[in-house]
């Protein structure tokens, strides 16, 4: 049996006593449909004993991780059943929607043919919102009121702590903060609080690479080894190009895992990561598929250093943060005191209450992520891109236009997601890790920029940015 695949920010379930609608009619009353209905009811109950009893009887493999199941239930709040897509004797597929957000998922359950029809596999994947279920576009004022209400509600239930900001054509039209930056000291978050941003740092790294390409200091078709001439693995050095690193198609893999946990505080420079991981072979033939690679963006930071002759962090300060007026953004080591930097809080270790994420943090952020910023600085970065303060029009287009498909249905550009829903396009990037979550969405047609940051686990910030993105006016 296969484990369930939870692939996004959160979801919920409502069982319908009368059965499920399928192709405009009642879904066939099959063993798979009945089992699916029973699972929905047990999961949606939110009761640990009820869900455990159901899993022990019908899906023992998942019963062993009941804490994980309940953590997912807490994060998602339950599903709303929307429609059945396939109903066969031993297989049932349905579209579900999170009660607490606009996120949709496709759930597929397969059961044993023989009674008691135990679950063989359960697959649950995030999907783009079907056109028929798209949220209605609203007026700017109504969206702002809705974001405020959602943030207040989630903050009151301890599901959001952070800040949200929205600008239109460079003018900030909404900026508010909620929750506590430091729970022990009772320090409130403000719009100037600095939050760790996880993988959002990739946008700065990719912009740096495109600046160097624009200046003629590198070519995107160049292999990695042209700049890192002493790179330990020859296949990576000769086969993986800068373009492939930027698009996560190089097969360079991740660096998080047991080795990272073991050496977390010893990895102080970008070169330290190469010393630890540089001998690895590509995980697949470079260019053959898309697979998110933090290590690939770590290598891009070293390429920035070689092509520019500057330390990576200094290059980003001089060529990204200063031109964009991002005075509150940086990646100083965690051991250094940083004014107004929030404490991150996590439950990812299975704890019932929020606890500081200190034991999960790297020595410092890297070119793959982990720096800190404010919602105001993120708005300034988005508007600097739209106004070509960081790159000319040609290279801004090259940076932000999708190059390869991703499993979520979006396209990946160079350090940016490129997404079009209902004819409305935005580009940007999110970030998430224990005790941190952030999201930036830039709308080139309307001029809106949305920034959300949180010092809690994902999807704390994503909830707010997604709500606004799905409802803001198209123009």
Show the helix and strand layout.
Layout lengths: L20 E2 L2 E2 L4 H15 L2 H11 L1 H4 L2 H11 L2 E10 L2 E8 L5 E8 L7 E9 L12 H17 L5 E7 L2 E8 L1 E3 L4 E2 L6 E2 L4 H14 L19 H6 L2 H6 L10 H6 L6 H8 L16 H15 L3 H10 L23 E2 L8 E2 L15 E2 L1 H12 L6 H8 L3 E2 L5 E2 L4 E5 L2 E10 L2 E7 L5 E7 L7 H10 L4
Antiparallel strand pairs: 1-2, 3-4, 4-5, 5-6, 7-8, 7-20, 9-10, 11-14, 12-13, 15-16, 16-17, 17-18, 18-19, 19-20
Helix pairs in contact: 1-2, 5-15, 6-11, 6-12, 6-14, 10-11
What does this structure look like?
With 475 residues, this protein is an alpha+beta fold. It folds into two domains: 21-133, Nuclear Transport Factor 2, Chain: A (Roll), CATH 3.10.450; 146-471, DD-peptidase/beta-lactamase superfamily (Beta-lactamase), CATH 3.40.710. 32% of the residues lie in helices and 21% in strands. The protein has helices at 31-45, 48-58, 60-63, 66-76, 140-156, 201-214, 234-239, 242-247, 258-263, 270-277, 294-308, 312-321, 375-386, 393-400, 462-471, and strands at residues 21-22, 25-26, 79-88, 91-98, 104-111, 119-127, 162-168, 171-178, 180-182, 187-188, 195-196, 345-346, 355-356, 372-373, 404-405, 411-412, 417-421, 424-433, 436-442, 448-454. The strands form six sheets. An eight-stranded antiparallel beta sheet has the order 8-7-20-19-18-17-16-15, sandwiched between helices. Strands 3-4-5-6 form a four-stranded antiparallel beta sheet, covered by helices on one side. A two-stranded antiparallel ribbon has the order 1-2. A hairpin with a 5-residue loop joins strand 4 and strand 5 (104-111). Helix 6 (201-214) crosses helix 12, helix 6 (201-214) packs across helix 14 (393-400) and helix 10 crosses helix 11 (294-308). The model is unreliable at 1-25 (pLDDT under 50).
């Amino acid at each position: 049996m296969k484990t369930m695949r939870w692939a996004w920010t959160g979801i919920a379930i409502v069982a319908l006593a009368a059965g499920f609608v399928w192709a405009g009619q009642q879904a066939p009353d099959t063993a798979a449909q009945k089992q699916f209905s029973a699972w929905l009811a047990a999961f949606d109950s939110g009761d640990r004993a009820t869900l455990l009893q159901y899993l022990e009887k019908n899906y023992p493999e998942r019963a062993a991780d009941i804490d994980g199941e309940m953590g997912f239930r807490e994060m998602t709040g339950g599903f709303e059943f929307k429609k059945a897509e396939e109903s066969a004797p031993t297989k049932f597929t349905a579209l579900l929607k999170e009660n607490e957000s606009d996120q949709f998922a496709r759930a597929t359950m397969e059961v044993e043919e023989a009674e008691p029809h135990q679950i063989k596999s359960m697959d649950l994947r995030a999907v783009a919102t079907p056109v028929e279920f798209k949220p209605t576009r609203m007026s700017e004022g109504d969206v702002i009121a809705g974001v405020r209400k959602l943030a207040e509600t989630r903050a009151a239930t301890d599901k959001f702590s952070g800040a949200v900001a929205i600008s239109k054509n460079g003018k900030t039209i909404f900026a508010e903060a909620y929750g506590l930056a430091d729970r022990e000291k009772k320090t409130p978050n403000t719009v100037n609080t600095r939050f760790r941003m996880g993988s959002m740092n990739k946008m700065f790294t990719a912009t740096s690479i495109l600046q160097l390409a624009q200046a003629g200091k590198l070519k995107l078709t160049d292999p990695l080894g042209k700049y890192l001439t002493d790179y330990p693995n020859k296949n990576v050095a000769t086969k993986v190009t800068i373009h492939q690193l930027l698009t996560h198609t190089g097969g360079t893999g991740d660096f998080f895992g047991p080795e990272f946990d073991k050496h977390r505080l010893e990895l102080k420079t970008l070169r330290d990561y190469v010393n630890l991981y540089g001998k690895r072979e590509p995980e697949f033939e470079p260019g053959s598929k898309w697979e998110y690679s933090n290590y690939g963006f770590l290598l891009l930071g070293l390429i920035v250093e070689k092509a520019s002759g500057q330390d990576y962090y200094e290059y980003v300060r001089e060529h990204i943060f200063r031109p964009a007026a991002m005075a509150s953004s940086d990646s100083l080591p965690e051991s250094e005191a940083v004014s107004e930097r929030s404490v991150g809080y996590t439950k990812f270790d299975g704890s019932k209450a929020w606890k500081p994420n200190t034991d999960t943090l790297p020595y410092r952020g890297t070119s793959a992520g982990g720096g800190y910023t404010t919602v105001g600085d993120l708005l300034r970065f988005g508007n600097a891109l739209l106004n070509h303060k960081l790159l000319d029009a040609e290279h801004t287009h090259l940076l932000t236009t999708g190059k390869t498909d991703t499993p979520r249905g979006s396209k990946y550009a160079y350090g940016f997601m490129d997404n079009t829903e209902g004819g409305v396009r935005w580009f940007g990037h999110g970030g998430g890790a224990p005790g941190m979550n952030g999201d930036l969405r830039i709308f080139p047609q309307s001029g809106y920029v949305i920034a959300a940051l949180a010092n809690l686990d994902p999807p704390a910030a994503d909830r707010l940015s997604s709500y606004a993105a799905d409802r803001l006016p198209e123009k």
